[in-house]
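Milestone M4 deliverable, item 7.
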Amino acid sequence: MHAIASHLPEYDCYFSQFYSDNFILQSLVKAGAAEHTILSGGFKSSSDNYLKQHGLKNDYRQATYNNQYDLAVVCSDLLVPNSIRGTKTVWVQEGMTDRLTPWSKVVKAIDLPRYWAFNTSLNGTSNLCDIYCVGSEGYKHHFQSLGTDSDKLIVTGMPNFDNVASFGYTNFPHRNFVLVATSDIRECIGLENRPAFIRNCVGIANGRPLIFKLHPNEVKERAIREIKENVPDAIILTEGNINHMIVHCEELITQYSTVVYVGIGLGKKVHSFFDLDDLKKKSPIQNGGSSAAHIAEICRRYIESTKSKQEFLHELPSIEEQYQKIAC
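Output delivered:
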């Protein structure tokens, strides 16, 4: 979001961590029952710290400045607050979505709130936003198959994953290792046999050093204990730029992590709980890091447009064609 805003200097941009104006969800946040969700805990603290560090205006829940906005740019439509439903909206894909589960399909089929899937499998499928900026043609087809209107979808690339070649220089000190990027499956109310997964990683490494990079949302003490019990000599990292680690690894093992796309883009041998052929089809386009500028231009045009939403959507295919030519 910061990258997109940096290409909109003529506008007054404000930021907010993800929030809900649903009374029940707000009560859960206040009661401390949402600490491992994007609504609270470490995610909220990291967001606030980032905004403060970069001098960005934090209008959390639109409750600080009481502004009325011309455009809202969001990266999740699992919850779309009522406060922005009358505003022009642009949804931006920020990473991969979770695998559809039988329960996800039930939630979608009977039109329950999409966050009831307890994962991100239905992110991008509410149709509540006006425009959906996605990472690749593969993802465009994916969201369309789940019910998002095709005329709302435009392939722009993802700002965090559109220039993996730029990760080529790094001072990460380790070499000739297998990197394991874990996921917060259990923290998101999923089931995982972590010791079995660790033992599988040992088998893949086949004597090579193992480095585990923990997901920021994991219960670190538990994850560290499990790794040490099964691989006492493994290196365990809880901080650091994982892209720099991937550059120098020989092989990348992931669970449900978007960083698998970095490995694919860098030509690494990768492992994932997702189907690898499907991942390669969905792999974000590489456009030299211009996704944020492309998305910003869509925002600019949409803000300034005096046409109806449907009339503006008719222009998206020509905008997409222009961007694809630039990406090529």
